[in-house]
Specification:
By secondary structure, this protein is mainly alpha-helical. The chain has seven helices and four strands, in the order ββββααααααα.
Length: 186
């Protein structure tokens, strides 16, 4: 079974490798898990590092560059339909006041990952992501037309959807087909 990360909007397997178990706080079901978090482990790690660096008083040039890229990354996620969480994301997206306190960390791998995602903003891929979370309320033919337009952008020389887009295309097509099968034609 798959689950969508509410921040990065990626569809990931719903297991402990990708999502931490959720344990409720407060009264009631103490020390028991009732499901999994809505944000994947990678996004949690990224948010923690960004918040920790943001709260530091003295930042290196590398850390300042990291925070600039994180701000751009959070805005890109919101455009894609995601809901970034964490103190720094809240600051960037809502303009919250700065906080202080924390320690240094190694962030090379996180910075590389975010830079890669920012540099590879592919219009067709972003459109597939948008279609995966689009609320389906119209007749199925409307969505088929949207899928056909994106499919044209992702065709290879042989007239087939390229491997780069295959997984996203299949997911969107399956979603739209299921919607059409269950649609109440009046």
């Amino acid at each position: 079974m798959n689950k969508r990360c509410k921040q990065c909007m990626r569809l990931l397997p719903d297991n402990e490798e990708y999502f931490r178990p959720y344990t409720p706080r407060g009264k009631g079901l103490r020390k028991s898990t009732v499901g999994r978090n809505t944000v994947c482990r990678e996004c949690e790690k990224t948010n923690n590092v960004a918040s920790r660096i943001w709260k530091q008083e003295n930042k290196s040039p590398k850390e300042l560059d990291f925070l600039e890229k994180m701000a751009e990354y959070y805005k890109m996620l919101v455009d894609k339909g995601g809901s970034p969480i964490g103190a720094y994301a809240k600051h960037v997206l809502e303009g919250a006041e700065a906080m202080t306190n924390s320690s240094a960390t190694s962030m090379d791998s996180i910075l590389a990952n975010i830079s890669e995602q920012l540099s590879s903003r592919d219009a067709a891929m972003m459109e597939y992501d948008r279609l995966l979370v689009l609320e389906l309320t119209e007749e199925p033919d409307v969505y088929q037309d949207l899928l056909d337009k994106v499919r044209e952008q992702s065709l290879g020389a042989d007239g087939r959807v390229t491997d780069k887009y295959r997984e996203k295309f299949d997911a969107v097509a399956t979603r739209f087909d299921e919607y059409e099968d269950n649609y109440n034609w009046e």
